[in-house]
Amino acid sequence: MTAIKKIKQLGPQWETQDPFLFCAYHLDNYPKGNANLGPEASLADRNIGMDFAPNPDGWRMYHGKTVPGFPAHPHRGFETVTIVEQGFADHSDSLGAAGRFGNGDVQWMTAGKGVQHSEMFPLLNEDRENPLLLFQLWLNLPKKNKMVEPHFKMLWNEDIPVHSFKDKNGKEITIKIIAGDYDKTKAPLTAPDSWAADPSNKVAIWLITMEAGASWEIPKEVEAVNRSLYFYNGDEIEIEDFHIPINHAIDLISGKEARINNGTNKSSFLFLQGKPIAEPVAKQGPFVMNTQQEINEAIMEFRRTEFGGWPWPTYDHTHPKERGRFALHADGHEEIK
Asked: Where is the Pirin N-terminal domain (predicted)?
């Protein structure tokens, strides 16, 4: 029996399996920046907010009108895991917390009972281009944790383990372990109320790279879990006689090993795994609850309270250009990198 359940073509927002809700994939070759941290390029004729559509110049403003990114917006009932492999993200939120992270850092944010935040992508380089490679996963919360206090945790690049090894032909494979474990290498602790905080839920988030011609077998998992492999960089791979081109997702059966034979170029993958929460899911925009009534309550509460209001000068707030990587938490303690 094959290890493959399904093969799907990828767009900018990737379909995921329970306990994940979806993955937004951002690959933008931003030009040089200007003094306002935006692109040193014309923004004329851009349909701001609709630019998840194909864009011939290779970069998007999303909802940002001056700086690329997503100005203030609310969330309730789930978590965001924001992986910035290249470029930077500026975080600001309704609790007064803030941060700048990137070039391999990960922010793990539990929205819980409600938080408003902005995610802007400052173009810090004025003398060269500003490429951005970012994944944002939406990870569901079980009913018992949907109304916990909001919280975020930084997984700094220096603290995220990378397991490197060679196949029998000397070809290199690396696995960056953001959640879960591989061959006795364990990821840092996640946010405390996360579904991933309980090891029995078998949540794994890995970034995998394989040298051209490398071969590697994803180990089987004895538990009944959902697992998906997202092939986003490279040329072609082979899994069990299936030849799969770039920009495809492969849903895998957890009880079987799956051998990947890489093609003629270096390949990159995102691997997601987790025991399903298996509860009803009601989604509307930025809110994820169990019932439509709870969604309506979230909308009404946000209209009334704005989940604490907005303490920053603008809804697309960015931090000073000279500021390095940092995280200012709601309780006032600060991390500086």
From this structure: 64-139
Range of the domain at 207: 1-10+161-279
Query: Which CATH number belongs to the domain containing residue 191 in this structure?
Result: 2.60.120.10
Cis peptide leading into 311, omega within 30 of 0? no
Amino acid at 320: P
pLDDT value, residue 30: 97
Co-location of 121 and 29 in the same domain: yes
Residues of the chain whose pLDDT is less than 70?
Answer: none
Name beta bridge partners: 88.
102
Is 69 in contact with 39 (CB distance < 8 Å)?
no
Structure tokens at 175: 């696995």
Identify whether residues 31 and 155 lie together within a single domain: yes
Same domain for 210 and 111:
no
pLDDT per residue as tens digits for the range 92-112: 999 999 999 999 999 999 999
Q: Which positions ≥6 away from 136 have C-beta within 8 Å?
A: 23, 24, 26, 80, 81, 82, 83
Encoding tokens for residue 297? Answer: 């309550």
Distance in Å from the first CA to the final CA of the chain:
48
Q: Looking at residue 57, what is its pLDDT?
A: 87
Residues 133 and 28 in one domain: yes
Cβ(21)–Cβ(255) below 8 Å: no
d(CA 286, CA 72): 12
**In whole angstroms, how far apart are CA 115 and each of 39, 45, 119, 257, 290?**
29, 33, 13, 40, 18
pTM to 2 decimal places: 0.97
